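Review form for a predicted model. The reviewer records the input and the model, then writes brief findings.
Reviewer: anonymous (R2)
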Amino acid sequence: MIEPALHELGLSEDLVTGEAVVLELRPASFATRSLAFALDLSVLGGIAFVVTLALPLI
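Model under review:
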């Protein structure tokens, strides 16, 4: 099934919030996404480390 183009349906490419506010957002670059992923992994690793240290104390 081929998806119709947005302009054929009368839709815009902008993101509209629930309050009907149009947000003009650019997609995140590869570097930004990579940095966010690395930050997420480091936070999760830190939490896992703390939980691992706390388990014997329970």
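Findings: The beta strands are 15-16, 22-23.
Further findings: The chain has two helices and two strands.
Recommendation: see findings above.
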